[in-house]
Amino acid sequence: MEQKNETSTDFILLGLFPWFRHPYLLILIVLLIYTVAFAGNSILILLIWLDSHLHTPMYFLLSQLSLIDLAYISSTVPKMVTNYFTGKKNISYFACVTQLFFFLTLGLAECILLTLMAYDRYVAVCNPLRYTVLMNPKVCLQMAAAAWIGGVLAALVHTIYPMNFPICGSREINHYFCEMPAILRMSCIDISAYEMVKFVSTIVFLLVPFIFILTSYTLIFLTVLRMNSSKGRNKALATCSSHLTVVSLYFGQAIFIYMTPTSSHTPEQDQIGAVLGTIVTPMLNPLIYSLRNKEVVGALRKCMGRCYN
């Protein structure tokens, strides 16, 4: 359908799985997931802020992860749902650039933060006597700042560069938001140089952190195996397994999308990877950390008890 307010610089978002026969069912599912993700991450942030027992480096970093997930899912879903209910599909060039920038910033910041969270667990398990020194409040703030600043700087490069490529023919984006691979497919010039830049950046921001995380957890598990206390061993494994689950969800889809050439996977595969990364994972993260963490569950019960009293 032709959009009345469409201009020559507007893009057309075809939406989530445009070939699906029951789009309203998809929207309802997405709205449900968004509600759960918004509520879960908001509650987790609130609990960490209110409960003094959760004022530790691990939970401070976890609150930053929840904040990122909250912004991550909010950067794409509201626009997609609005387009569906209004019947409009166009998005302005400026809005597309803004969406791409925030999407990349949050994704890269999450990658850095997950790496720093692995370092936190490494210090806690392998160097417990130095934990309060190595992970003091100042260091935690510096870690959070590094994640956000690193995400912003890298996102600027990967927003300004591809968005200046000339576009030939249709400006239809076979996606539900402005994502880099979808934008690159519309370019009418050779993008092999940028593909190399993207590949190198992916190594720096995805592969190297992933190797660092695996190394950290290898050392953690070796230390855990040498523990004499079964209680300490179980506690260490419980906190580490939650983080490893989140790492697997995030890095799996990110490496698939960004470490392979754009031409090697279809728009449908890009959408599936994006849904897992930007919609499903932000919903699962707070559930993984809360349901498998006795301290968070205890803080929730305490908070609910105060509300009822």
TrEMBL record:
Matching SUPFAM superfamilies: Family A G protein-coupled receptor-like (SSF81321)
Q: How does it sit in the membrane?
A: Multi-pass membrane protein
**Residues forming coiled coils:** none
| Record keywords | Cell membrane, G-protein coupled receptor, Membrane, Olfaction, Receptor, Sensory transduction, Transducer, Transmembrane, Transmembrane helix
Q: Which PROSITE patterns match?
A: G_PROTEIN_RECEP_F1_1 (PS00237), G_PROTEIN_RECEP_F1_2 (PS50262)
Q: Which GO terms describe its molecular function?
A: G protein-coupled receptor activity; olfactory receptor activity
Superkingdom is Eukaryota
Task: Identify the residues that the record assigns to the G-protein coupled receptors family 1 profile domain, covering every copy.
Answer: 40-289
| Role according to the record | Putative odorant or sperm cell receptor.
The entry assigns this protein to a family as follows: Belongs to the G-protein coupled receptor 1 family.
Protein's name in the database: Olfactory receptor
Supply the source organism for this entry.
Answer: Balaenoptera acutorostrata (Common minke whale)
Gene of origin?
Answer: LOC103014882
